[in-house]
Amino acid sequence: MGALILDGSSIAGQIREEIRREALLAGERGIAPFLAVVLVGDDPASVSYVAGKEKALSQAGLRGKTWRLPADTTEGELLALVERLNRDPSVHGILVQFPLPPQIDENAVLQAISPDKDVDGLTPFNLGLLASGRPAFVPCTPQGVLALLQKAGVAIPGSNTVIVGRSGLVGRPLSILLSSKPWNATVTLCHTGTGNLADHTRRADILVAACGVPGFITAEHIKPGAAVIDVGVNRVPDSSKKSGFALAGDVDFAGAREIASVITPVPGGVGPMTITMLLKNTLRAALRQQ
């Protein structure tokens, strides 16, 4: 029969409608949530992500503006812009699109963003709050994964959850989130140094793939009936596409869907949820700053 395919686009649409209604109510109180997006250079993936965020902002009734800077922008110039946005009371959220050109230290940029405007939830301060069990802004992709699991009715408390990938963007914060109250999952965080990976993943009730390798997780890694969440977004060559590439996840979808009970597709799974959680965090930031 195959797994239930979680339509992230549809679920994201439902949540965005809730955000739109909340934004209308905020507007009646004179609050106009505003997201500042900063894009340095013209990396195709980043340009595409930013376009998706701009469209989502408009649909959800939130305001925003993108600052597009040339690829040779210096670190000092970018930090100066971030500081101006920090001081601007009309700006409620700041998102600097990664990756950045090599001359700019991404950690320095994250440290420069005001924690009150860190709607990506990635500044050291906000990650520290998450680790201490007092989150202000939860990183968008982990938050989106959690929302997908909830919408699918997947039982999280008491589950054995395995995350493959330990990045500060997804794996580490997601492991903290799922192991915290009230979710109470028992979490195993795997990575490139994990031996006998399948021994870990085959015990997982919930398996999250976030390693950035196309098709890395196969049917052999999956416990029958597990919920499989594919965070990966990889460009693979595809001559049939006008662009010359297609998007592929970290999971071998065709094989995995025959084993899992629930699975997310790529594209159309976690991606739309990540952008939706950015909108949710922007609205929250605006309400918190009043």
Description:
With 290 residues, the chain is of the alpha/beta class. The protein folds into 2 domains: 30-114, Leucine Dehydrogenase, chain A, domain 1 (Rossmann fold), CATH 3.40.50.10860; 140-271, Rossmann fold. It is built from 10 helices and 11 strands. The strands form 3 sheets. A 6-stranded parallel sheet has the order 1-11-8-7-5-6. Strands 3-2-4 form a 3-stranded parallel sheet, sandwiched between helices. A two-stranded antiparallel sheet has the order 9-10. Helix 2 links the parallel strand 2 and strand 3. Helix 2 (44-59) crosses helix 10 and helix 6 crosses helix 7. The chain is globular and about 50 Å long. The model has no long low-confidence stretch (mean pLDDT 95).
Average pLDDT taken over every residue: 95
CATH architecture title of the largest domain: 3-Layer(aba) Sandwich
- Mind telling me the CATH superfamily name of the largest domain? NAD(P)-binding Rossmann-like Domain
Report the principal-axis shape. globular
User: What is the CATH C-level name of the largest domain?
Assistant: Alpha Beta
Q: If strands are numbered along the chain, what order do they take across the biggest sheet? A: 1-11-8-7-5-6
Tell me the series of helices and strands, N- to C-terminal. EHEHEHEHHHEHEHEEEEHEH
Low-confidence parts lasting 5 or more residues at pLDDT below 50? none
Strand content: 15-25%
What proportion of the residues is helical, as a percent range? Answer: 25-40%
The CATH topology of the largest domain is Rossmann fold
Q: Tell me the distance between the termini.
A: 51 Å
Output the radius of gyration. Answer: 19 Å
Structural class by SSE content: alpha/beta
Total DSSP E strands:
11
